DNA sequence: TTTCCTGTGTGCGCTGGCGCACGGTCCCGC
DNA sequence: GCGGGACCGTGCGCCAGCGCACACAGGAAA
């Protein structure tokens, strides 16, 4: 497990060849009333991050929060002996860095980019100010936090009771939901780190899924062919998290 | 797993034989400035609950939150097939029912009294009003919630990587910290339900601890004889949760 | 084209925890 | 004081997942 800790800068050329990002591509920001978003707007800065980039380290004070637009981030815990486990995934439905407004400023876990892409960066102070107003932003952040709690709790249960096969299905579904696609760029080794299992375990589980025609696997690329079947093979944990997330964050559907 | 779902009422005689409870025995309430506690005071009602009493069921709308004074509560998740796992423990350092102020109103987990004792019950509306003022109460509740999140995350990791032996140690330590004692009234069967393992697994682990002179076990009563040794046998998870809880909730020590 | 590294498939022995079953013992209530 | 039910101890076969080791393949860089 060696993650790059320095963001790779995109060239000016790259920046010019790409359109100006829109904050409303993050669904949490999109759910804000126009007046609140307008207040935040001057503080929001688009950034790009590659796979493996570390958004924050355990115990390290955070300066910013990050709103993913087309990327996903894993909150993962690395233990003394080097083994790791994912606690939760964050995509365009949420925000990375909740401990800033929760008051703790740091967490014992690490946030790592699991799928490269774009974010909006917001200074912690701006977030705290907006949160302190007690308006829509506070409301949204708290509900999102509860959804995150649900995900963590379910991860705990899943780790206890379900097989690697089932957990892989759950993990794929959660990730794909946040990417809004059917393809994932991810090695089996990395998936194993997230699930906290052996790489060989993932190889075997993925092999079964491929034989069943549910996914197609090719050297770091996973494509889901039969999503319904995948949901059927997953444990109940996926459905619980999805249902609860949809309940808590109805804005995910209000287009 | 059959929990009593109706609270056993204490007789008037019992009530008279017992002193009037003090809200400041709950450390979260104790940390409030006098003016805020005074505002809440008229709404706080002392209640007693027995082992196994269910404070709330998954998906059920909550009317009250509960501040334990000398009791502890397990947040646990029960799966479709009946197997269960504890997500976190709450004692006099916190409050049961965070989803009320987080905005979700319900959670997919269940809250069960793990050690009989007393609580202060507060109507949800009173809590929300106070939370909405954005004062000390909000601040405390959010920091407490973050501590709870840490505990859940660590539970997830622990479930993934550590042995039943280690987990039992962690669990005993977390529970005893919240009871401020060295004795626990709890059957091995119940501990097994909390940890989400077999009863026999707990029997074996507890046997080892007893042979090592760390605990003394007698039919539903556990007494810790050598706490330092117990901490040594536990996985890192206990220390992580304790350290983070102490950091987030310094009021636990301000007497 | 060749090289070489990264990623993937496979095999094997080991062990922790599971499911099941049954026997012993403590204590509560009649 | 004497059932009987709740609680605890133990044994056994089974298997998912682990650690390790090695062979093979895709693909990027030289």
Can you give keywords for this protein?
globular; homodimer; alpha+beta; DNA-binding; 255 residues; Arc Repressor Mutant, subunit A; 20% strand; Jelly Rolls; 11 helices; disordered N terminus; three-stranded antiparallel sheet; four-stranded antiparallel sheet
Unreliable segments of chain A (pLDDT under 50, ≥5 consecutive)?
1-9
Shape of chain A: globular
Q: What is the subunit organization of this protein?
A: homodimer
Order of helices and strands of chain A: HHHEEEEEHEEHHHEHHEEHH
By secondary-structure content and strand pairing, the structural class of chain A works out as: alpha+beta
Radius of gyration of chain A: 18 Å
CATH class wording of the largest domain in chain A: Mainly Beta
User: What is the CATH superfamily of the largest domain in chain A?
Assistant: Jelly Rolls
As for the number of domains of chain A, it is 2
CATH fold category name of the largest domain in chain A:
Jelly Rolls
Strand tally of chain A is: 10
What does this structure look like?
Two copies of one chain form a homodimer. Chain A is an alpha+beta fold and 255 residues long. The first copy, chain A, has two domains: 12-159 and 245-252, Jelly Rolls, CATH 2.60.120; 163-234, Orthogonal Bundle (Arc Repressor Mutant, subunit A). Chain A contains eleven helices and ten strands. In chain A, strand 4 and strand 5 form a beta hairpin. In chain A, helix 6 packs antiparallel against helix 11 (236-248), helix 7 packs across helix 10 (227-233) and helix 8 crosses helix 9 (199-211). Chain A is globular, with a radius of gyration of 18 Å. Residues 1-9 of chain A have low confidence and may be disordered. The A-B interface holds A 75, 77, 79-80, 83, 85, 87, 98-99, 101-104, 107-109, 132, 134, 139, 142-143, 145-150, 152-157, 159-161, 196, 236, 240, 244, 247-248 and B 75, 77, 79-80, 83, 85, 87, 98-99, 101-104, 107-109, 132, 134, 139, 142-143, 145-150, 152-157, 159-161, 196, 236, 240, 244, 247-248. Chain A binds a DNA duplex (30 and 30 nucleotides) through residues 163-164, 187-189, 197-201, 203-204, 206-207, 217-220.
């Amino acid at each position: 497990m060696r993650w790059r800790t320095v963001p790779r800068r995109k060239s000016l050329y790259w920046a010019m060849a790409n359109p100006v990002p829109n904050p409303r591509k993050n669904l949490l920001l999109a759910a804000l009333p126009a007046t609140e978003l307008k207040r935040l707007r001057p503080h929001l800065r688009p950034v790009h991050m590659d796979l493996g980039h570390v958004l924050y380290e355990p115990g390290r004070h955070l300066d910013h929060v990050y709103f993913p637009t087309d990327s996903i981030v894993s909150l993962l815990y690395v233990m003394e002996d080097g083994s790791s486990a994912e606690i939760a995934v964050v995509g365009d439905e949420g925000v990375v860095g909740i401990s800033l407004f929760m008051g703790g400023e740091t967490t014992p876990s690490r946030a790592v980019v699991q799928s490269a892409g774009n974010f909006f960066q917001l200074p912690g102070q701006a977030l705290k100010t907006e949160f302190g107003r007690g308006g829509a932003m506070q409301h949204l952040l708290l509900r999102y936090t509860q959804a995150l709690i649900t995900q963590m709790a379910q991860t705990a249960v899943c780790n206890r009771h379900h097989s690697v096969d089932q957990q892989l299905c759950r993990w794929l579904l959660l990730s794909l939901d946040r990417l809004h696609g059917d393809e994932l760029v991810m090695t089996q080794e990395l998936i194993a780190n997230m699930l906290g299992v052996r790489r060989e375990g993932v190889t075997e589980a993925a092999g079964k899924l491929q034989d069943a025609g549910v996914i197609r696997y090719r050297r770091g690329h996973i494509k889901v062919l039969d999503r319904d079947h995948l949901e059927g093979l997953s444990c109940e944990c996926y459905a619980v998290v999805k249902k609860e997330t949809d309940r808590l964050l109805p804005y995910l559907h209000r287009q």
